[in-house]
Design goal:
The protein is α+β, with helices and mostly antiparallel strands. The protein is about 30% helix and about 20% strand. About 50% of the residues are buried.
């Protein structure tokens, strides 16, 4: 069930989508209005209650941020503009000055959308353009999604440190907030803003203003009736406990109350044995009386109830809204799989044209694109290497208008950021267009910059016929490239990586390389060849194993079209091939706008390195994020057993009869709160083997976006459940145009928990829409 309301509005592209779940209601994303911005460029400061709740009002760094700082924004060698930046009272957003005033929403960014805060010259922009400012005075704010970095220089090193420390504290406090704290913090910040005369009392006019702020478009008569019922002092003002009662009445969760009362009986509290009964009905593993008692101590808010080992409705809601009550199995959020199997036994998060931040025709190239890919758990990145001036190889999309970056700068970004999120190995997939001299320079940069991180010789292994494991290669970097001796062209020289891919896909991509470049690319230097220890780029000639010893170190690169052809025509043979060695799949060159293909087809056949354009959001990247959401988001996910066995009989085109039934129920329609402003529907998609792929959606709920309850059960029959991903999508129905996207969440079926669960929605860019949720009941029956 969704809760809250959202407006059908078009946000500016640079404003990150934000969700709000109002108190205990089911949340739906809304665009939070930005703080008021008086003509002096500041904001009214009605109080610091929100920050008090975060425990940061006395923090010197936060207090300095509240006062504001004049920081220089750096965009080029000559564009260094001083701007005022100031933390808002809510502790969740930063207001900033613009030369030309724009809409209020264009003067703000949100703390929850910050990916990282870096000190010194730790961004491409500051390394190139920040030389006039001492590193101690500089900082970079990197954002999630596609928003550009914010490179800043402070007047003093101490002021820069205050912003670095302050933002770090705010992000840590925000991440540590419970669902209850997030909701309470959010609503009180809006109460202060709606209280126009700051008298801590709310007139009906101010209540209506509050409802508009949180995108609740309620019938005036119903809102006024609710207002009068809470106005116990009968003075047409709500204050203190009356405001709290109004919010509780406004934000009731009838579907949760109904479930709670089923187990609590007449006394309206859950004892530990009653909570245990609920856990057992949920299908919770390890449900014991001790576990029920532990949950009461963790989530109950009332100290008296906690002392008597009782759980109230509030505690019950907090449990269901916590990570332990989420649909995603909380034990799967850390590394829980066996990491000691050969690399070929894992799906590995992989990026195509990693250097691009936009399309492959004229988009900019940037080392920041590698940093962002690593921040999303990517473990295989691509480097398109070309001859550069001054003997320095460059990376860009050859013969296009994309900008160029130095190869050595990318290798430095790998050194500095590859293991920030995950300790497991990174693969550098080289597409080599350089001559011998610059190939030697590439090898030199790799060795000198990466040092001991680079794998330069085979590890001691008890089984040389298998690739080493992710555990053995922790913190190490592998190079995928041509190996000498290798396949030879007619003139006796080794073929380049690019020629291999283009010959495989001759009919798909135009020959774009000039004759001079082609002659250079046909040479492979011994220095670079020596670095391809475990990932030898090799053309896939046959799927049938050769009579001699297996070649686990050979890696084939296939276009999506070639891979699909193999899956259709030789599904089981392709599965067996991928059980022994790595296969990389990349998008067609015809995808000029850097669009993606569905990675699920490739995973079905066991392909490990399914490379996508990480800079292009869409359902394909949602699937990729869902696949690698589990196992600690480390970028490695163990393939199902049927894809790891060298003698497997599995064929994704013929998976056999249904083995699992997935049932998802959405609570009944609530007709008590009419006159909202959206028509929400929920679509549930199954992505797996072709026979399992399906989508079903609820009827849209006309004019009831405040607390929509659909009362429908969607059911799916699955033949290969171990490969299935489940994607939950919420849209705002529109009869005359495409539905407006609200939020989504994707996860493996194997990590989906049964029972009453909350789905925590994400934006198009994959950013959290917390505290927006979808409330459902899940049943999984296995035959």
């Amino acid at each position: 069930m969704l809760c809250g309301r959202w407006r059908r509005c078009r946000r500016p592209p640079e404003e990150p989508p934000v969700a709000a779940q109002v108190a205990a209601q089911v949340a739906a994303p809304v665009a939070l209005p930005s703080p008021p911005t008086p003509s002096d460029g500041g904001t009214k400061r009605p109080g610091l209650r929100a920050l008090k709740k975060m425990g940061l009002t006395e923090d010197e760094d936060v207090r300095a941020m509240l006062r504001g700082s004049r920081l220089r924004k750096i965009r080029s060698r000559t564009w260094h503009k001083e701007r005022l930046y100031r933390l808002q009272e809510d502790g969740l957003s930063v207001w900033f000055q613009r030369r030309i005033p724009r809409a209020p929403s264009q003067h703000i960014f949100f703390v929850q959308h910050i990916e990282a805060v870096r000190e010194g010259h730790q961004s491409e922009g500051l390394r190139r353009f920040g030389g006039a400012f001492a590193p101690a005075r500089c900082l970079t704010i990197a954002f999630k999604g596609r928003r550009k970095n914010l490179d800043l220089a402070a007047p003093t090193a101490e002021e820069a440190q205050r912003w670095v420390r302050g933002l770090t504290k705010l992000r840590a406090r925000l991440d540590a907030m419970s669902q209850r704290e997030r909701l309470d913090h959010w609503i009180h910040s809006y109460l202060h803003r709606a209280d126009s005369n700051q008298d801590s009392k709310m007139s009906f006019k101010e209540i209506k203003s509050l409802l508009r702020m949180v995108n609740v478009d309620m019938n005036d008569m119903y809102a006024y009736l609710l207002f009068k019922e809470c106005d116990h002092s009968n003075n047409d003002r709500l204050e203190g406990a009356e405001i709290e009662e109004f919010l509780r009445r406004l934000l009731k969760r009838p579907e949760l109350e109904e479930i709670f009362h089923q187990y609590s009986g007449e006394d309206r509290v859950l004892s530990a044995p009653e909570l245990l009964e609920f856990l057992e009905d949920q299908g919770e593993e390890g449900a014991t009386l001790a576990r029920a008692q532990q949950l009461i101590q963790t989530y109950e808010l009332n100290e008296t109830a906690k002392q008597h080992e009782l759980m109230t409705l509030d505690g019950f809601m907090m449990y269901l809204l916590s990570p332990e009550g989420a649909a995603l199995d909380n034990t799967h959020t850390c590394v829980f799989q066996d990491m000691n199997q050969p690399l070929a036994h894992y799906f590995i998060s992989s990026s195509h044209n990693t250097y691009l931040t936009d399309s492959q025709i004229g988009g900019p190239s940037s080392t920041e694109a590698y940093v962002r890919a690593f921040a999303q758990g990517c473990r295989c990145v691509e480097l398109d290497c070309w001859e550069g001036p001054g003997g320095e190889p460059v990376i860009y999309h050859g013969h296009t208008l994309t900008s160029k970056i130095l190869f050595r700068d990318v290798v430095q970004a790998v050194r500095d950021h590859a293991f920030t999120l995950s300790p497991y190995p990174v693969i550098l997939s080289l597409e080599n267009h350089c001559g011998l001299e610059q190939q030697a320079a590439m090898a030199r940069h790799l060795c000198t910059i990466l040092g001991d991180m680079l794998v330069t010789q085979a590890l001691d292994s008890p089984n040389p016929e298998e690739l080493p494991s992710p555990e053995q290669l922790k913190g190490r970097v592998l190079v995928k490239g041509k190996k000498l001796p290798a396949a030879r062209s007619e003139d006796g020289r080794a073929l380049s990586d690019r020629e291999e891919e283009e010959e495989d896909d001759e009919e798909e991509e135009e020959e774009v390389e000039a004759a001079a470049q082609r002659r250079l690319a046909k040479q492979i230097s011994p220095e670079l060849s020596a670095l391809a220890v475990y990932c030898h780029a090799t053309r896939l000639r046959t799927l049938h194993p050769a009579p001699n010893a297996p070649q686990p170190c050979q890696v084939s690169s296939l276009s999506e079209r070639k891979a699909k052809k193999l899956i259709r025509e030789a599904g089981n043979s392709f599965v067996r091939h991928n059980a022994r060695q790595l296969t990389r799949v990349y998008p067609l060159g015809l995808r000029m706008n850097s669009a993606n293909y569905s990675p699920q087809e490739m995973w079905n056949s066991g392909c490990q390195l399914v490379a996508l354009n990480f800079q292009t959001p869409g359902y394909e990247m949602d699937l990729n994020a869902g696949r690698f959401l589990v196992n600690g988001q480390c970028g490695y996910v163990l393939k199902p057993a049927c894809l790891r066995q060298p003698d497997s009989t599995f064929d994704p085109e013929y998976p056999g009869p249904p083995r699992t039934t997935l049932s998802i129920q959405l609570p009944k329609l609530n007709a008590e709160k009419p006159h909202s402003i959206v028509d929400p529907l929920v679509r549930i998609e199954i992505h797996g083997v072709p026979a399992d792929c399906a989508r079903q959606e609820t009827d849209y709920v006309l004019n009831n976006g405040f607390n929509p309850r659909w009362g429908q059960t969607l059911q799916f029959q699955l033949r290969a459940p171990e490969l299935a991903l489940v994607r939950f999508v919420v849209e705002d129905y529109d009869a005359t145009s495409p539905n407006d996207f609200v939020g989504q969440f994707t996860l493996p079926l194997s990590s989906l928990k049964q029972g009453y669960r909350h789905i925590h929605l994400l934006s198009k860019d994959g950013a959290s829409l917390s505290p927006a949720t979808l409330f459902i009941q899940i049943r999984i029956q296995r035959s």
